[in-house]
Amino acid sequence: MSRHVAIVTDSTAYLPPRAMERHGITAVPLTVVLGDQALEEGTEISTRSLAQALQKRRSVTTSRPSPQVFAETYRKVAESGVSGIVSLHLSAELSGTYDAAVLAAREAPVPVRVVDTGMVAMALGFCALTAAETAEAGGTMDEAVTAAEKRAADTSAVFYVDTLDYLRRGGRIGAAQKLLGSALAVKPLLQLGDGRIEPLEKVRTASKAIARLEELTAERAGNAEVDIAVHHLAAADRAAALADRLRARVPGLADLHVSEVGAVIGAHTGPGLLGAVVSPR
Question: Rounded distance, CA 105 to CA 65, Å?
């Protein structure tokens, strides 16, 4: 870890623990509210528990970290001796996390640059890794921010959900709202665009939707050197099979991460989610 610039992100980056430890990245947890219990993502609620709760149609909501939680995080990170912090977060269109970080940054003991990446999941995680690598190489805060913003601009995310119902219930459906009328007849492919969830294509069956997801991911990767992340919720076999096919199809593949999303994203997508992030280096 660079001793002059530290990287902070949030729990929706879904970075592998080893990568976070190796680069000294700190993740601030979002909260999942299950019934009357407020539980921190990553430590107090498992994705299995979440999936079971959703399948039983229990009340599940999510909330941002408070500015006080961010303030305490910045204080602890500053005590390690760094001279500045770059704080990278999921899209402000999807969560108030960015706003909470901005409020806390004003009172931090060292300068903090807060960035709305417009991303989520490993689309955010790849930005945090790039910022950390830039800082480790001696880059300034501005250089780390610029590197992260460029990575975000080049990164794309496509995902499939079994139903739009969870996105509708959570108020995160955005422009995909127009698909609701035909939701029973189609299996939607969605994407991140301008920080929002947008409809991409309508496909008639789950198998065809997943095949199209694979095709789009390979097309977006092209022949460039890319990192890919395959995410899922309660669909491990689907994710593993997709990852295997992408390894064979993407000639410039550098790293491929396969992981189950955490409870915050899972609460809004529901079981059966399958997604792919393509991030050129």
Answer: 13
Q: Coil, strand, or helix at residue 147?
A: helix
DSSP state of 35: T
What confidence tens digit (pLDDT) does each residue in 22-39 have? 999 999 999 888 777 887
Beta-sheet pairing, 187-193 with 156-160: antiparallel
Residue with tokens 């430590």: 43
Q: What pLDDT, on a 0 to 100 scale, did the predictor assign at position 177?
A: 52
Q: CA-to-CA distance for 222 and 233, rounded, in angstroms?
A: 27
Strand order in the sheet with 26-28: 26-28, 5-10, 84-89, 112-116
The answer to whether residues 29 and 41 touch, using CB atoms and an 8 Å cutoff, is: yes
Cβ distance 178 to 155 under 8 Å?
Answer: no
- Phi and psi of 60, rounded to 5°? -135, 120
CA distance 271 to 237: 13
Strands 31-34 and 26-28: unpaired
Q: Do 101 and 87 contact (CB within 8 A), yes or no?
A: yes
pLDDT at site 245: 98
Q: Which of 71, 84, 73, 113 is nearest to 2 (CA)?
A: 84
pLDDT given for residue 2 in this prediction: 43
At 29 the three-state DSSP class reads coil
Instruction: Enter the tokens of residue 132.
Output: 């950390």
The stretch 161-179 carries a mean pLDDT of: 63
Question: Looking at residues 159-186, what average pLDDT do you find?
Answer: 63
Q: CA 69, CA 229: separation in Å to the nearest integer? A: 29
Confidence label for 259 from pLDDT (cuts 50, 70 and 90): very high
In order of 73, 157, 242, the CA distances from 215 in angstroms are 41, 13, 10
Q: How many CA atoms lie within 13 A of 73 on its CB side?
A: 26
Q: Which helix (H) or strand (E) holds 122?
A: helix 122-136
